């Protein structure tokens, strides 16, 4: 037999009051429980270490592929440097690594300022094309 | 047995009265223990404890 609480009479009112009281308590208990669970979740160690490590790398912006990238780049650069002429290579290194000025290099090589600058930019462009 | 009687007996640590109240509120507790469509047993257990607490603390 189903009995429906219509809110009439002392007993029904009391039951409704108790139910409201209980529902409120349940709500607070639930919030506390969920808070506790998320707190525990952040402190727990994931059991799958491989995927966790990959995830960690991903969040740091470095993946396994990007670790290899500089090595690959330097290999290609070495190959490209072999393709340009000796003079261009000399100017490129003097300018890029030793930070020497075009004036300085022009005096050393017996060339004009513009000639050295043009040779340097030509070398850079050749390197870019090779890589 | 009316509700008031049941509640006062449960307050006096009557096991049968407590059981009857738990039976009455079981569906509510089960409903509240569902999180994101998954029934959480631990939460249900916590809510049962909450019900017993409420019986103890509620002033008639």
What can you see in these coordinates?
The complex is a heterodimer of chains A (131) and B (60). Chain A has six helices and no strands. Chain A is mainly α and 131 residues long. Chain A has a single domain (10-130), classed as Arc Repressor Mutant, subunit A, CATH 1.10.10.10. In chain A, helix 3 (64-83) crosses helix 6, helix 4 (86-96) crosses helix 6 (113-130) and helix 5 (102-109) packs across helix 6. Chain A is rod-shaped and about 110 Å long. The mean pLDDT of chain A is 81. Chain B has helices at residues 3-11, 15-32, 41-57, and strands at 34-35, 38-39. Chain B has a two-stranded antiparallel sheet. In chain B, a hairpin with a 2-residue loop joins strand 1 and strand 2. The model of chain B has no long low-confidence stretch (mean pLDDT 92). At the A-B interface, helix 1 of A face helix 1, helix 2 and helix 3 of B.
List the helices and strands and how they pair.
The complex is a heterodimer of chains A (131) and B (60).
Chain A: H1 9-43, H2 49-59, H3 64-83, H4 86-96, H5 102-109, H6 113-130
Helix pairs in contact in A: 3-6, 4-6, 5-6
Chain B: H1 3-11, H2 15-32, E1 34-35, E2 38-39, H3 41-57
Antiparallel strand pairs in B: 1-2
List keywords for this structure.
heterodimer; A: 131 residues; mainly alpha; Arc Repressor Mutant, subunit A; 6 helices; 79% helix; rod-shaped; B: 60 residues; two-stranded antiparallel ribbon; 2 strands; 73% helix; elongated
What shape does the CA trace of chain B take?
A: elongated
What is the fourth-level CATH superfamily of chain A?
Winged helix-like DNA-binding domain superfamily/Winged helix DNA-binding domain
Radius of gyration of chain A: 37 Å
Biggest sheet of chain B: strands side by side, in what order? 1-2
| Helix content, binned percent of chain B | over 70%
**Main beta-sheet annotation of chain A:** none
Structurally, how many domains make up the residues of chain A? 1
Mean pLDDT rating of chain B: 92
Number of strands of chain B: 2
Determine and state the CATH class of chain A.
Mainly Alpha
Report the total helices of chain A.
Answer: 6
The low-confidence runs of chain A, each spanning 5 or more residues with pLDDT under 50, are none
Principal-axes geometry of chain A comes out as: rod-shaped
The two chains with the largest interface, and their residue counts, are:
A-B, 16 and 19 residues
